[in-house]
Amino acid sequence: MRLKKIYFVAVAAMVAMLGFQSCESDDEGNTARVQLKLVDAPGDYSEVNVNIVDIQYNNSENEAGWVSFGTPEDYPINVDLTTLIAGNSLLLADQIIPSGMLKQIRLILGDGNTLKIEGQETLLPLNTPSAMQSGLKLNMNTTLDAGFTYTFILDWDVQKSVVSTGAGTYNLKPVIRVNAEVSSGSIEGNVSGEFLVNGLSVFNNLENAMVQVYTTNGVYVTESGTNAEGDFLIQGLAAGDYKLKIVNQEAYDDYESALITVTVGSVIKIAPIVLIIPTL
Predict the structure, then answer these.
(1) Number of domains present in the structure of the chain
(2) Residue range 93-147, pLDDT digits in tens
(3) Is residue 88 part of a domain?
(4) Which residues, at least 6 apart from 136, have a Cβ–Cβ distance to it below 8 Å?
(5) Rounded to two decimals, what is the model's pTM?
(6) pLDDT tens across 223-259, in order?
(7) In terms of domains, do 242 and 121 share one?
(8) Which of the listed residues 139, 159, 183 is the one where a domain comes to its end?
(9) Do 47 and 156 belong to one domain?
(10) How far apart are the first and last CA of the chain?
């Protein structure tokens, strides 16, 4: 599951201030450092390829106020979203900008985005409607205090963002969850699965298991996949109580965790998850 070039700027969220680190280039005390970190909530695709041609911010309500992060030489940024799991992330921007109100951020993606369906070898076009290319905006509405660093996590939900239109064609309608590292926490773990060898149970790390996060009220939040070692890391979770679920995973029983409490600024490492073959 991945994505290649598209215009994307996300589904909004309230974000808070990150960190208490000093800005290295704050000569006059009127700048702040902003970092944008991209992570992926996977879908049923083996590749989703995206080519980002510009990333911009706006400190005003004026459409003429958009300013690019970095220089033209920093683009394009090519990313395969399906690689952004188990703690892997892509630092999209790291720049010192004027302090004060940060109104919006937007990512501009080029044409030619593609995806690959699980079990197939052919790359398919991922069409981007003109409304998306004109600039979906991520509303930040965050005050940047001079001399501080702010890191924002952009968690793109591929499963909800890729829409089948029939006849083997697909459109991109980005769905992105946003939070600031300072106001969020993470859940880290490992998933293994039971295998039968000569009638005996053997347990090996399970790759590509989809670990879903739900609130205690059963509301879906996000998900992430496991890597070749069975490891996963789910970032950017607001403080609170959650449950993890793994469902429809090949021949295994569905799994649901006990309550997990996430606190701000912490990485909660849970006990290894072991998926069991159903008893006949």
Answers:
(1) 2
(2) 999 999 999 999 988 888 889 999 888 889 999 987 664 555 678 888 889 888 7
(3) yes
(4) 7, 8, 9, 10, 106, 174
(5) 0.67
(6) 888 998 999 999 888 889 999 999 988 889 999 999 9
(7) no
(8) 183
(9) yes
(10) 33
